[in-house]
Amino acid sequence: MAAITVAGRRESIVARTTADRALLRTFLERDRLFAAYAICDLDDREFSKTRWAAAFDGSAIVAVGLEYGGLSPQPLFVMGSEDGTSAILRDVLRPRAAYVAFLTALQPTVTAHYRLDAGPPMVRMWVDRTTFRPYPADARRLLPVEIGDLNRLYQLGFASWLPSSAIANGVYYGIRVGGRLVAAAGTHVISQDARLAVVGNVLTHVDFRGRGFATATTGAVTADLLRTCDHVVLNVRADNPPAIQAYQRLGYREHVRFEERLGHRLGSPWPSLPGPLRRLLSIAKENPAR
């Protein structure tokens, strides 16, 4: 497709929606650990809940974006070049509010489209079988029938409740004291195909902190996942050194620091004219008249 001139500027990058999982997976695997959530969302269980965009410079893919469905705000993930990311956020993925995840180098690009709430950077940590160090503790795998106990614990620190399917489809471990669930850790998403998982929902009741329960439950979840996964990742706030150190005791290592901020769309809710024009021309190229 020929380049398009807009306001005297030559633009060759075209962003469009895509459902080509092989194409997306190949690009995301360039940074498997940072893109772990997105790679897992390519699995059948999650893919129907997502909307994807890719930006192309000619035939070369230069950026990918993922918008997760559901009540606003939902996650919005972008990865790739500045120009490609800008095209995706300008022309394709345009939620009015979203939790935007991106490498810090893309912050000027993202803030051209979203006003971001303040917050510390996030640390993406990872572990595999060679680095993992088990943490002996009496943590037990939770069953779906225990979802009520889990949600009562999570009500102290999280805004939403989990369905029982979260336990059935994921891996959750907890520690009880006197029969009461006082600490738990689980998974956000798992991909058996990619052999990759994301640990999350780690919480200890305030009355039982400082006893290593968070480390113990996270370690139990990680050990279980590493039976079938090559890599396990998690996120932790950069301003939480005790948590970082706890995960390091399990063998987790820092991969990258990135931003994950609540963003509010700037300007008009309507896309600019050049975006739809580029998409129409791109579609015409993919589907020539026969």
SSE layout and pairing:
Blueprint: E1 4-6, E2 9-11, E3 13-17, H1 21-28, H2 36-40, H3 44-47, E4 50-57, E5 60-68, E6 74-80, H4 82-91, E7 97-103, H5 107-111, E8 114-116, E9 122-127, E10 140-141, H6 147-154, H7 164-169, E11 173-177, E12 180-191, E13 196-204, H8 213-225, E14 231-237, H9 241-249, E15 253-265, H10 274-286
Helix pairs in contact: 8-9
Descriptive report:
It is a single chain. This protein has 290 residues and is α+β, with helices and mostly antiparallel strands. The protein has 2 domains: 4-123 and 261-286, Aminopeptidase; 132-251, Aminopeptidase. Helices cover 28% and strands 34% of the residues. The protein has helices spanning 21-28, 36-40, 44-47, 82-91, 107-111, 147-154, 164-169, 213-225, 241-249, 274-286, and strands at 4-6, 9-11, 13-17, 50-57, 60-68, 74-80, 97-103, 114-116, 122-127, 140-141, 173-177, 180-191, 196-204, 231-237, 253-265. The strands form 2 sheets. Strands 3, 4, 5, 6, 7, 8, 9, 10, 11, 12, 13, 14 and 15 form a 13-stranded mixed sheet that branches.
